Amino acid sequence: MNHIIVFKNRFFAQYPDVCREIQEIYGPRSTIWNLTDILIQGVGGPIDTIPDPACSNGIIIRISAKSYDEKQYLFQYYHECVHVMYGTCLDPKRQKIIEEGIAAYFQLEIKPVGLVINPQSKYGESYLLTKNLLQKCPSAIRDLRCKGIDLNQVTPDQILGACPQYDNEMAVRLCELFYA
Question: CA within 20 to 30 Å of 85's CA: 14, 31, 103, 114, which one?
């Protein structure tokens, strides 16, 4: 159990740096939520975020710990940090494919730990759509966020405005709900 506490403390301490890095790439964060804790569940379970009962705008990242694997912890942690930053972490039904895509892109391209996502999965598709957007227009998501556009209210026209060379059908797909 000590390895879990060491991991939690080390990576919770890195959260401000991770936040800065996410904002440099994707633009201003939502100020709705703040990370207040990381819960590593020793018996497995969901990988998600839950409200912190001790803080009205606090979020706890809940990570599965079926076995001690620092790479898997990091992989999960980096993904969930993006959700905390962009406001829908407690309402996944509002998450559009673009938000899951930027979370997957961050954990695979920006903070790689040597793990992969099945490209045939929904996460894989969201990652590939986002990667394609960022290859064509590296600042597209940041530009949208700097204009105050909520990623979960973004429209295909707004995406195409930020990246005119992006494919229209792909822009439409990015704007669909992830959990539809």
Answer: 114
